[in-house]
Specification:
This protein is of the alpha+beta class. Bound molecules: 2-acetamido-2-deoxy-beta-D-glucopyranose (12 copies). One 2-acetamido-2-deoxy-beta-D-glucopyranose binds next to α4. One of its GO terms (molecular function) is catalytic activity.
Length: 679
């Protein structure tokens, strides 16, 4: 019985549950946060792997009382709802005592809307998950532990109801959840990055993204079972090798999805840190490469096939991972497979038009995919440019040049056939369709296929899709995708409009985090334009409760706030080179940091009185080099800039696509004061 293990972890010294990793898993995670500080108050991760419910809801679900360690089911109280007050996931244990035979049902849900005697949907079939039943055979007491395969990966509410024999008096006590996620970490709060700003909601959003990614980092043998079970659920699938792996969502699908990793991996790196789960996820995709060179759309046991875009996301994910970790052994191990995957996808480029013709039409959820779709072409461009970079790391300059030449030619084809200059955005494909998709347009800016003028135009056009609670996606009508919006916010920052990016972050992610029926601690997979939690219901999802409320693909603000607001980004392996280019938007101060094998990277800025000057502190590992673009506060051409006490007058220049005062800073600690010289 597992309870023995739990007892063994109980520490009399501290008077609480001692830090521990998941079950038999070896602890390899960090022991302490890299940047301890006041911002730890925003961190949603529990102090311990063993957590108790916080409150008991009233029967009308409108109020609550503190959970005091036991609840009573009786004829008067046939159902009790325990609230953990935030997203959690794992295995629940409890004790019970009853005055007669009874059967009680156990159910879990993320959103408050779906509280009831049955769980929210997660099994992947079209049948309800239902509930687990505990049969109490007669008067007496005992203890119960949820069987491992019935692990509930993501929930906030735990509901106990009579399933029959109502009338017995059953005392359910000592409900404890053993957290299943982030299995190799003994201290779930030991983040290797941090963020803090003068804006409380942005702070919460950054930490909600980070915590979501932790809930998506799961023990290797707790994936959703395939074939999908009916009228219940099973999370006993093996997802890969190793002991920890990153999946798409806490509750579901609990599978490796490389497209999701396009957002989840940067956000993990810049917040929680520790990318062994990412390495295991990418490795399993290569391990299951098909003979023709194609990579699966999803990892085992699901192993869905037939997605050209997700095929490419594995290749882009490889670049991200190698850039952050400098894991050249991983690259060497998979390099032949990587090249084969490039040839597979490049073989679909039409020689006449120079555009990719998509035949693997599965994708993130957009309604249409196929032919010369612009999103897929933009992703191919990124695949080629990043693979060109990887080829240099592998010492193959000729191959690097080949990939770069292909990228350059593709860039010309995309801008020739897909750009609508009269409208000022990319069309969904090279027909005269008037659908200007959120995904391709956001990604084209993000992947640098565009001029400054195109960036401005796309950024302005994207705003036309917004309603009060987010960006409604033209390619998935009626729905708001915080996944695609995670790319969109980056495109607004890259267009130099931080105010616009922050506006969308607040209206979409802020809306969800404030929603009384949500988890108040994570980022949601998607929702309808009217604000109901029914993403893709009627478009493939069997029930509105199927939506995942902890989906890493929606964690884009986490990396974006670090990269564009704090301003720090890794540009060379492990941060050997980096850039610092903050954007202020409407905020007064921000700071943040992250960790690589070279050490800690950290920056802080604060705007001075009357917005006439600002100060910056920046500390990076010795031996690294950063390109720095200090933004203009009021738009002057000149500024007096004092770096480590030494003052100099700087003149504005364009660096990349944005204006500012440019310089280079080497590793070490630096303080900077920027005072603009009025025109
Ligand atoms: C929350 O859910 C309840 C129950 O379904 C519903 O009555 C209420 O309107 C919802 N609240 C919001 C803000 O959507
Ligand atoms: C509980 O009892 C019911 C009715 O006797 C039976 O169908 C069910 O299989 C039992 N469940 C468990 C978990 O033992
Ligand atoms: C329920 O059980 C717990 C644990 O044994 C005990 O502390 C509590 O007093 C019991 N409640 C009632 C109403 O008997
Ligand atoms: C997972 O659990 C389901 C349902 O109990 C069972 O049918 C299946 O064989 C299990 N799969 C594995 C891999 O253990
Ligand atoms: C584990 O790794 C081996 C060897 O690399 C590979 O053949 C196997 O497919 C992997 N297993 C899983 C479940 O990924
Ligand atoms: C082009 O895109 C539009 C909008 O998504 C779609 O309706 C149409 O079917 C696509 N055409 C082709 C040939 O793929
Ligand atoms: C794009 O695909 C459509 C549908 O196959 C085709 O009609 C059109 O000619 C293609 N355009 C280019 C530039 O290849
Ligand atoms: C272009 O769009 C118009 C409608 O806006 C349609 O009537 C026409 O057939 C389309 N032309 C082509 C070549 O697809
Ligand atoms: C973007 O592309 C242009 C060429 O089109 C290149 O000069 C520039 O360096 C690129 N910027 C980045 C950040 O890669
Ligand atoms: C930035 O975005 C805001 C809000 O959409 C807009 O009002 C403003 O004009 C934009 N600024 C620039 C320079 O484009
Ligand atoms: C990256 O890895 C390579 C090969 O192991 C090594 O030579 C290089 O020094 C590493 N770079 C950094 C910045 O750690
Ligand atoms: C920079 O560091 C100094 C010394 O610790 C501190 O006084 C100042 O407030 C810091 N500035 C910012 C913007 O954090």
């Amino acid at each position: 019985m597992r309870s023995t293990g739990l007892l063994a972890a109980y520490s009399l010294v501290s008077g609480g549950w001692a830090a521990s990793c998941w079950r038999e898993t070896t602890c390899t995670g960090p022991l302490e946060p890299a940047f301890p500080g006041d911002w730890d108050a925003y961190n949603y991760a529990p102090e311990s792997r063993s957590v108790k419910p916080k409150t008991v809801l009233s029967s009308d679900l409108l109020s609550s009382t503190t959970y005091d360690g036991s609840v009573i089911l009786s004829a008067d109280t046939p159902q009790v709802v325990l609230d953990f007050a935030q997203e959690v996931g794992g295995i629940i244990t409890f004790n019970y005592a009853s005055n007669s035979a009874a059967a009680i049902g156990l159910a879990w849900t993320e959103a408050k809307n779906w509280i009831g005697s049955d769980s929210d949907y997660s099994n992947g079939g079209s049948t309800p998950d239902g509930h687990l039943t505990l049969n109490i055979t007669g008067p007496g007491s005992g203890s119960y532990e949820v069987p491992l395969e019935k692990l509930r990966g993501g929930f906030r509410y735990f509901t106990i109801s009579y399933s029959s024999s109502a009338g017995a008096i059953v005392n359910v006590s000592d409900v404890v959840l053993e957290i299943g996620f982030q299995p190799t970490w003994s201290n779930l709060r030991a983040y290797q990055g941090y963020f803090h700003s003068s804006d409380d909601m942005l702070n919460k959003i950054w930490y909600a993204g980070a915590y979501t990614l932790q809930t998506n980092t799961v023990p290797i043998n707790t994936g959703r079972a395939i074939p999908m079970v009916k009228n219940s659920w099973a999370n006993n699938g093996t997802l890969g090798n190793g002991s920890t792996i990153i999946v798409d969502g806490a509750k579901r699908d609990r599978a490796v999805w490389p497209g999701d990793m396009g957002i989840a991996v940067p956000s993990t790196f810049y917040s929680v840190g520790g990318l062994d789960s990412v390495a295991n996820a990418l490795q399993v995709m290569y391990d299951y490469q098909n003979k023709d060179g194609s990579l699966p759309e999803a990892g085992p046991p699901l192993l869905q096939q037939g997605s050209d875009t997700y095929h490419m996301w594995t290749l882009i994910g490889t670049y991200n991972y190698v850039m952050y970790e400098n894991d050249t052994n991983f690259l060497t191990l998979n390099w032949v497979r990587h090249q084969k995957a490039i040839e597979y996808i490049y073989g679909k480029v039409d020689e006449t038009s120079g555009l990719l013709v998509v035949t693997g039409t599965r994708d993130w959820a957009r309604l249409g995919q196929g032919f010369n779709n612009s999103e897929a072409n933009v992703i191919l461009f990124r695949t080629l440019t990043t693979s060109s970079y990887l080829a240099i790391l592998m010492g193959d300059n000729a191959l690097s040049a080949t990939y770069q030449d292909r990228a350059t030619a593709l860039s010309v084809a995309i801008n020739t056939h897909l750009w609508d200059s009269s409208y000022g955005a990319f069309r969904d494909n090279a027909t005269n369709t008037t659908l200007y998709p959120q995904d391709a347009n956001s990604l084209a800016v993000l992947f640098n296929l565009t001029s400054v003028e195109q960036d401005q135009s796309i950024s302005a056009r994207l705003v036309e899709n917004w309603n009060a609670i987010g960006a409604v996606s033209p390619e998935l009508p009626g729905q708001i995708s915080p996944f695609i919006s995670s790319f969109e916010i980056q495109s607004h920052f890259l267009a130099g409009n931080a105010t616009r990016a922050l506006d969308l972050i607040r209206r979409s992610w802020g809306w969800y985090l404030n929603h009384p029926n949500g988890t108040e601690s994570t980022v949601i997979e998607g929702y309808l334009e009217n604000g109901s939690f029914a993403y893709r219901f009627d478009r493939g999802y069997s029930d509105p409760s199927y939506t995942s409320h902890a989906h890493g693909w929606s964690s884009g603000p986490t990396s974006a706030l670090t990269n564009y607001v704090v301003g720090l980004t890794v540009t060379g392996p492990a941060g050997q080179t980096w850039s610092f280019a903050p954007q202020f938007g409407d905020i007064q101060s921000a700071e943040g940091g992250f960790t690589t094998s070279l050490g800690k990277f950290r920056a802080a800025w604060a705007i001075g009185d009357a917005r006439k000057s600002y100060g910056v502190n920046i500390t990076t590992p010795e031996g690294t080099v950063g390109s720095v673009l200090l933004p203009r506060l009021v738009g002057s051409e000149k500024a007096k800039i004092t770096i480590n006490g030494k003052a100099e007058v700087y003149t504005t220049s364009m660096v990349g696509k944005l204006p500012g005062f440019a310089t280079t800073i080497r590793g070490g600690a630096h303080s900077v004061l920027v005072q603009e010289i009025p025109i």
